[in-house]
What does this fold into?
Amino acid sequence: MARDTKERILARALELFAQNGYAGTNVRELAASLGIVKSALYKHFASKEDIWNALLDEMVAYYAARFGSQDNLPPVPDSAEGLIEMTMRMVDFTVHDERIILTRRVLAIEQFRDERARELASKHFLTGLTDMFTPVFAGMMDRGLIKRDDAAMLAFSYTTPISALIRLCDREPERTEEAMERVEAFSRHFINTYGN
It folds into this structure.
C-alpha cells in the first residue's frame, strides 16, 4: 500500500512539474490532488526536493529500461532495414509514451534551474543518443552494412535530426504523424547515403 501511494505521488508530481514547473508546484496542492493531506505525503518523502530527486531517479530508470541507455544498448541490426525498423520502434515509443513525454517536458522546463535536470536534458536530447548509437554503427560497419566512417560522428549525424523531430512532436503534437514520416524518410536517406 505504501509503495502504491509513493508511486501515485511521483506520477502526480510528474504531471504537475510538467505543467507548472518545480517552483510552480506546491506540496499542499500536490497532496490535495491525490486526496491526502500534506503530513501523509511527508510520510513517504521528506521534502519537495526529495520528491524531485526520487522522480528524476524514476524517470532515468523508466527510460533506460524501455528505450535504452549506455548500459542497455539497442542491438546491432542485421540489415539496413533493421536499423530503420529499430529506429521507428524507438521513436514511436518516445513520442507516444505519456511518461516519457512528460519527462521531456519537465527536463525542458527545469534544465535552466536544476543542474541534474540540465545534465539529464543534455543526455536525453543529444549526448545519450549519440552514445547509444555509436556502438550500433560500429557494429553495422563490422558487419559490412554501412560504409566505414567515424562511428561517433555517424551516430551524431543520425540522432540529431531525429531528436529535433521528437522535440517537434512535443511542441506540436498534431504534427506527430508528419514527424514520424520524416524520421522514416530521413532513416532511409541515411541508409542510401551510408549503406553498402
